[in-house]
Amino acid sequence: MEGTRYNEHSRLEILTGLSLIDTGTIPEDRIREYRQFGFRLGREHSGAGSVSRLQKVGAWYQTFMPGHIKERAKTVTGYLRLISILVGIMAFVTGAGAAGYLFYYDGTAPVNVLPVLTLFAFLPLLLLLLSAGYVWIGSRSSGHLPPIFRWIEGPVRSRIRKAVEDISGKADHSLKSELSGLRSNATEIWLVHSEPVRYFLKQNLQLAGTAYLTGALLWMLFNVITTDLAFSWSSTLEVEGEALYSFTQIISAPWARIVPSAVVDFNMVEATRYYRADRGDFQVASSGRWWPFIFMTILVYGFFPKALAFAWYRWRFIRTSDQAILASDSGSQIIGFMEDLLVTTKGDDDNNSAARAGISPERPVESSVNCVVLFWGLGGTDPSRIQNVLNRKVIFARHIGGLNTSEEDRNILLDSARLSQNSSHCDILVLIPYEESPTIRLEKKLHLLAGNSQSRIIIMPVIEERSRNCQANEINWRTRVDQINEAFGRKRVSLDTRNIIDSSHLTGVT
Amino acid sequence: MSHPVFVVTGAPNKGKSTFIKAMTNDESVVVREQARTTTSAKPYPFKIERAIGGKIDWETCFTLWDTPGFENAAEMHEILTEWGIRESDHPIELIRKFLETYAGHSDFVYELEIFKPIAGYACIIYVADCSKPFRKSEYLWEMELIKFTRLPRIAVLNPVDGDRHLESWRSGLTDYFNNIKVFNPHETTFDEKLRILGAFSHLTDEWEEPLNKVIGALKMQREKVLEECARIIRKTILQIFDREFSVRYDGIRDEEEHRVELVSQVREFVHKTMDDTQREITHRFGLQIDVAFDREFDDNDLFDTTVRRKNLSVHQRALINVMVGGGIGAAVDVAAGGLTFGLFTTALGVGGGLAAYFKEISPMDLVKIGSYDPDEERIQIDSLSPELGLLVINRLRQVVAVLYNRTAANTETVVIRKDLDLADLQNLGSLLKKMAVSRKDRYSEKNKQKLLDYIHEKLKEDRTVVKVEAT
Ligand SMILES: Nc1nc2c(ncn2[C@@H]2O[C@H](COP(=O)(O)OP(=O)(O)OP(=O)(O)O)[C@@H](O)[C@H]2O)c(=O)[nH]1
Ligand SMILES: [Mg+2]
């Protein structure tokens, strides 16, 4: 759907754009627009899986990224991409050209197998292994970048600097505010050194290698089809046919089963040796049969490893750029803009409408001033100290539960109920040890209280020290209180978790 | 939609508007030294965003009203009690009648403003200055009037100039208010502010939920701001490390002059960057407060003068050039399919090696903080001291810690006077060292994340322990 486009081609462009924009100066009303947009995206996709944050950033980029920045991001990434394409084309042409030279056969000297294999299979493989070694060493030591980055750094940076200066110059006034503090220096360096860009370049170098070998392979096929090639092998060194034969056996081991026609046999090796002076027993007839072997060797030792390296770097590029988009300062902020709901406390100048809105038809119930306090399961505390802790007048304070008999408790509870009924605006506070869980015994007492008094019953937690597990216990108490209220059919008991009492205040030990 | 309403009342010039300003962080609240600054009631809605009907919209959770001070509470009380009150009536009915009867009456201009929002049922917040003595005769009638409404009410004592009379105020107010809180808008902390909102929510059960919603939202917003600040600080550090400093070596001035120029370039940039960052942080907190750093960075802060930079010798450079040049040449040879017979390998290798010997090496030994680039004839700084990163984090941390707890009510400049002990930042030392020296390490996503997490962690620790006094 429109707006959620996020594809690999745009990754580098989005990253560049994000590195160019300064999200800190975007005005509030614009941000609210982003949020509406993010919300709509989320709703439109709520059926078919949720929108990923990457998609959100992508959609934001398509819709809201200021045109000038987008343009620059396109230019800069286009520049990087152009270099890669040119290098790729050059590599392809070079590969095809080299193949054209090596496979040239006009009926006189046959094509020598050895340099072909060296150039198109073994050397590329060797270079690949060497660079893998370099990467491995580089990843273990800090600091140094492969030389290739140092070569391209200068030109790429000056080019990017120009592009960025261009925007700052061209920007109209409204855009300038969004660009102020543009991190041009950071951006141009970032574009050469950031991990995604490094992987992008490495990916394209491997792609160029692949193109070189593709060129060679295609040209070879072309020659095989259009001319009757004769292959031979010759070397100044006195190599025995035996040795070369066993060498080819090792090489062709990977495909010997799958493509038996691409395996050379000993007779052919012997028959296709070519001496510069006399041709020995060179047999032109069997010399064409080399080609499947050569083709497979280039494919397996040259092309495949390159293509694999390309795939690996491509994967790394995609992964790191996705991560970098989300972790970048602007990216994370844009996600925040779209996802975090705001709170505002600013004054309302439209006085009258607010006054009208402010009028609340319900009559608030006044909190009571007096209270009856019951200590549940809090041995060692002194009820007379409760007055110091509360901001209301305590008219009665007793222990219940604990070692009391049911009869004793019953009397205290009935007394409390009566006192709270008789005094105006009087709550019944039940102090409970927050570390413990609610029990049926306590529940029965609460029922007795509620049955004999209309006063509010408030459960107030007491804790030993500000311990952590209270968080978990709040759920226990809250559920139980809800259940009790449900049984009554209305809210009779409430839990006051805001004014948690420190038990040291009730024991006198400080 | 109805929502809770809290009306801030009190005698003139007791800091009602200051209280509002602290709670709302609204810079537009007018606070002045004279009484009668506020002459009409003004609402300050606390709104949070919510998805309503297919789009995101504001939902007002509760409203705080600023009002003028009481000026004729005694007469108003007299009239109201004279009118009497029948058992079935709520006193609010009488107050509405009063507003109708005396509308426009000059004796009660301020009272009419104060009671306008109260007449729609509200909780009343009574602000008093507990640095002044409690004189019952002075405040009796406004308190009686508030009590008369039988609305939930809370007193907020503002120790404008110390709390000498706190106790007499406390005992004087207990007969009139369910709850008494002490709150100093100038020296408050963010948590303290939320606690006050929490106290409001207890005035009546029904209003607990909307207030808690706002408290939750404010808390979350602060968390976000803190994370943003960590990002801003990280950005600053990377910016400083990334910057390239260099001066032209002219061979006329002596080394010391070159050095001084280079150093001042660095110092200016670092100070300017810190200034920008500080402004960005202040902006994130929604405040307009100046922040000043009392101490400038000196050479020892900026450069690692104890370690001499390693410069490659001529031979080393020659060797590298041979390898690199030969490498390129080999690549060309290979690509050309051996057509060139290793010509490029040889030529570029030898050429590169020789080139190293044609370049002069010179004044960097004397400048000590940088190296000399013979191509450009410039002396440049290779890397700044990793300690500088620690110092920058250290100072910006203090800014964040102060602003975290600041409200708009206090407009005094924040001055960061000293650097904190660097010991608790030492863990970061090795990471910063790497990031100061090498771009590759600086741009590694892993290192960047590590740095961010570390700064964020520190900011979270700092907010509860404000270690700086601002003046
Ligand atoms: N130092 C200090 N000054 C305070 C504090 N609270 C208020 N003030 C000062 O007291 C004066 C009056 O504050 P306001 O908030 O305007 O008081 P008010 O009650 O709104 O005044 P009116 O609107 O005129 O009734 C101002 O000069 C404030 O700066 C405080 O906590 N500390
Ligand atoms: Mg005022």
> Taking Cα atoms only, what radius of gyration of chain B do you get, to the nearest Å?
33 Å
Reported for the largest beta sheet of chain B, the result is: 6 strands, mixed
Tell me the overall shape of chain B.
Answer: elongated
Q: In whole angstroms, how far apart are the ends of chain A?
A: 66 Å
Beta strand count of chain B: 11
Q: Which sequence of strands runs across the widest sheet of chain B?
A: 2-3-1-4-5-6
Ligand types: guanosine-5'-triphosphate, magnesium ion
Structural class of chain B: alpha/beta
Q: Largest interface, and how many residues on either side?
A: A-B, 74 and 96 residues
- Quaternary state of this entry equals heterodimer
Q: What are the segments of chain B in which pLDDT stays under 50 over at least 5 consecutive residues? A: 359-367, 467-471
Tell me the domain tally of chain B: 2
Rounded average pLDDT of chain B: 82
Number of helix segments of chain A? 19
Which SSEs are present, and which pair or pack?
The complex is a heterodimer of chains A (510) and B (471).
Chain A: H1 8-20, H2 28-44, H3 53-64, H4 67-102, E1 111-112, H5 113-140, H6 147-170, H7 173-179, H8 184-193, H9 195-226, E2 231-232, H10 241-252, H11 266-271, H12 291-327, H13 329-339, E3 343-344, H14 351-358, E4 370-376, H15 386-389, E5 393-400, H16 406-422, E6 426-433, H17 440-452, E7 457-463, H18 470-488, E8 493-495, E9 501-502, H19 504-507
Parallel strand pairs in A: 1-2, 4-5, 4-6, 6-7, 7-8, 7-9
Helix pairs in contact in A: 1-4, 1-12, 2-13, 3-13, 4-6, 4-9, 5-12, 6-8, 8-9, 9-12, 12-13, 16-17
Chain B: E1 5-10, H1 16-24, E2 42-52, E3 55-66, H2 73-83, H3 91-101, H4 109-118, E4 123-129, H5 136-148, E5 153-158, H6 166-173, E6 179-182, H7 190-201, H8 208-242, E7 246-248, H9 255-284, E8 291-293, H10 299-302, H11 314-335, H12 343-358, H13 364-367, E9 370-373, E10 378-381, H14 386-405, E11 414-416, H15 429-437, H16 439-442, H17 445-462
Helix pairs in contact in B: 2-5, 3-4, 7-8, 8-9, 8-14, 8-17, 9-14, 11-12, 14-15, 14-17
The structure holds guanosine-5'-triphosphate and magnesium ion.
